[in-house]
């Protein structure tokens, strides 16, 4: 297993659950720590932000996989990242004694893709929820989301209609795919671009509080 760097922010007192936030392309493990505070200002959750495994020559920050085409990750680097992240999640659940069913997997952009990949992956534990800002469910010949075992899984999707990096149709496609598959989807759009809308943060905060308290 590839050892992934990470940062974490403990809860105040006994944690109600675990929030794992995966950063986007070109960022690092420090990037989404403030998002953890915004989503969980009462510090009810243990927040962890892992670092992606790849450093690419000529590109800043870290990356989860190579990008030949938006929506279609490079298979080799994608599966390698999934393997490393699966091992990281498994060790995290063991170390914190917080079970998958009390865990929300979330992220922004490429980090949302990884949250979908691990939260919907065949044979992976079913989390409490998936939180996806400006991402997509990946499309590969040798990977399919396992929706049959995840009926009722809570999912929060937010996307900007003016996103020039990952077009809003990717968010809508994820909404439709998961809704038809029987997952419980909370879907949000705004007129912003490739960023997190502050208005969506308030909705995500409420969604998260309901997800980990069930």
General description of the model:
- There is one protein chain.
- The chain has 214 residues and is of the alpha/beta class.
- The chain has helices at residues 33-39, 75-96, 110-119, 168-180, 198-212; strands at 6-9, 17-22, 45-50, 103-108, 129-133, 154-160, 184-190.
- The chain has one domain (6-212): Rossmann fold, CATH 3.40.50.
- Helices cover 31% and strands 19% of the residues.
- A seven-stranded mixed beta sheet has the order 1-3-2-4-5-6-7, sandwiched between helices.
- The longest helix has 22 residues, at 75-96.
- The mean pLDDT is 96.
SSE arrangement:
Elements: E1 6-9, E2 17-22, H1 33-39, E3 45-50, H2 75-96, E4 103-108, H3 110-119, E5 129-133, E6 154-160, H4 168-180, E7 184-190, H5 198-212
Parallel strand pairs: 2-3, 2-4, 4-5, 5-6, 6-7
Antiparallel strand pairs: 1-3
